[in-house]
Amino acid sequence: MLEFNVTGMTCQHCSAAITAAIHQHDPAAVVDIDLTHGRVQVVSAVNPKQLLHAIEQAGYEAELVKAVT
Q: What is the tally of structural domains in the chain?
């Protein structure tokens, strides 16, 4: 599981945009978004840097805070 801190997520549109960006790189990814705490958890076999870049390309600032294999 990967966990990202994401700045700027405020609504369901943000959640949908981030989920879509991640699914472009891994359609099978399981994405859980916590808008209140600004966290995105992802279960994916894709390189975390690719997913980080996908979130940033969607217009959000993000940092990887946890990678558990």
A: 1
pTM of the model: 0.92
- Per the DSSP assignment, residues forming a β-bridge with 3 are 41, 66
In the 8-state DSSP scheme, what is residue 54? H
CA quadruple 11, 7, 4, 51: dihedral sign: positive
Paired tokens of 63: 């940092």
Q: What is the mean pLDDT of each run of 10 residues along the chain (69 residues)?
A: 95 97 97 97 95 97 89
CATH at residue 61: 3.30.70.100
What is the residue range of 40's domain?
Answer: 2-67
